[in-house]
Write a structure and sequence with these properties.
CATH class of the largest domain: Alpha Beta
Helix content: 25-40%
Number of strands: 13
Structural class: alpha/beta
CATH architecture of the largest domain: 3-Layer(aba) Sandwich
Shape: globular
CATH topology of the largest domain: Rossmann fold
Largest sheet: 6 strands, parallel
Order of helices and strands: EEEHEEHHEHEHHEHHEHEHEHEEH
Radius of gyration: 20 Å
Strand order of the largest sheet: 10-9-8-11-12-13
Distance between the termini: 35 Å
Number of domains: 2
Length: 298
C-alpha cells in the first residue's frame, strides 16, 4: 500500500507518529548521551514508519544526530554520532519541532480509536518479529532514508563470493562478550576445508587488531571498515553468508537482504523469513557441516 509518506508529503490527518530514539535527552534536533547502536535505533524508526503507513498517519522524522563521549573513552572507530548518514523522511525541520512541542501525546490505542495527536514509539518491541511480515517494506524504508554516499563507499566491491564476519567487541565487557574469537575462527576454518579458496572473508569489528589476531591471520581473511556503522551494516548485508554476533547489528544485516546467517547465540528470535537459513552454532560441528554443505547456503 502506497501512503502519503512514500513521497515525503504530509497527510491531512492530525495524527502523527514520532520514533523517539533512545537517549538521555532528545531535543528534537539532536540527542545527547545515547548509548545504543544503530541496530537498536532502526527498530524504533521502522516500527514507527510501519504504524504510520498502515494507518495513514504522518511520520515525524527521527532525531538521528547524537552527542556522546563513551565511544571516545572506549576508543571505538564508530563514534555513534550518526551525522550525515540519513535523509529526512516525513515531517522535519521547524514543523517537526512545532509538533513535538505542541501536539498532544496520545497512546497508540487512542489514535486507532480516532483521537488526534502525537503517538510516540520507543523501545525495541519484539525485535524482528514485528517486522518480518513487512520485510520488503522495511527494506525499502531503510534504503529510502540512506544518503547516496552509503552505497558508494563499497560500490566497486563484488560481494558474490564474500562471507561477512561480524565480531562485536568494543563496547562489550569481557562478561558480556561470551563469544571468543575462536568461535569465528572455527567456522571460517570449516568453510575453507569444505570450499577451499572459493570464498573471501570480510571481518567487520569494533575490536582491536590484536584482539582479532587469531582470525585475521587466517588465509583469505581481511578486515574492512567502510567509514561508518550504516555503510558497514549495508555492506555486511551484501555478503553471501554472515557469521554474526549476538547483536542487532548482525541481525539487521541478515534481515534486510534475507542473507543466511550463523549466530553464536541470540537474545532475539529469528531474523529470516526462511528460518532454515539461520543457525545458532553452539559447537556441534555436525550441525555446522550440514549447514554449510546446504546448497541454499553456500
Amino acid at each position: 500500500m502506497q501512503s502519503a509518506l512514500s513521497k515525503n508529503k504530509y497527510n491531512s490527518t492530525k495524527t502523527f507518529v514520532y520514533p523517539r530514539l533512545p537517549a538521555v535527552y532528545d531535543f528534537g534536533f539532536i540527542r545527547y548521551r545515547a548509548p545504543q547502536g544503530l541496530g537498536n535505533l532502526l527498530f524504533v524508526a521502522a516500527r514507527a514508519y510501519l504504524i504510520a503507513q498502515s494507518n495513514g498517519w504522518n511520520y515525524i522524522n527521527p532525531t538521528w544526530g547524537n552527542i556522546t563521549f563513551g565511544t571516545y573513552l572506549r576508543n571505538e572507530k564508530d563514534k555513534r554520532h550518526f551525522f550525515g548518514l540519513f535523509k529526512s523522511k516525513g515531517i522535519s525541520g521547524f514543523l517537526k519541532l512545532f509538533y513535538l512541542l505542541f501536539s498532544k501525546e496520545i497512546t497508540l490505542e487512542s489514535a486507532i480509536s480516532g483521537a488526534e495527536g502525537k503517538v510516540v514509539i520507543e523501545g525495541l518491541g519484539n525485535y524482528f518479529e514485528d517486522l518480518l511480515c513487512a520485510q520488503e517494506t522495511v527494506k525499502e524504508f531503510v534504503y529510502s532514508i540512506m544518503r547516496s554516499t552509503i552505497l558508494s563507499s563499497f560500490e566497486n566491491i563484488d560481494f558474490k563470493n564474500v562471507i561477512g564476519v561480524h565480531v562485536r567487541l568494543g563496547d562489550y565487557t569481557i562478561l558480556q562478550r561470551g563469544t571468543s574469537v575462536s568461535w569465528y575462527a572455527t567456522i571460517v576454518n570449516e568453510i575453507i576445508k569444505r570450499h577451499g579458496g572459493k570464498y573471501k572473508f570480510f571481518v567487520f569489528s569494533d575490536g582491536e587488531d590484536q584482539e582479532l589476531s587469531e582470525l585475521l591471520l587466517m588465509p583469505q581473511v581481511k578486515r574492512v571498515f567502510f567509514g561508518n556503522a550504516l555503510s558497514d551494516l549495508i555492506a555486511l548485508s551484501k555478503c553471501k553468508l554472515i557469521i554474526g554476533s549476538d547483536s542487532t547489528f548482525s541481525g539487521w544485516s541478515a534481515f534486510l537482504e534475507q542473507v543466511p546467517v550463523i549466530f553464536p547465540k541470540r537474545h532475539f528470535r529469528r531474523v529470516l523469513v526462511d528460518a532454515e537459513k539461520e543457525l545458532v552454532f553452539n559447537g556441534d560441528l555436525g550441525r555446522l557441516e550440514a549447514f554449510i554443505n546446504d546448497q541454499r547456503i553456500l
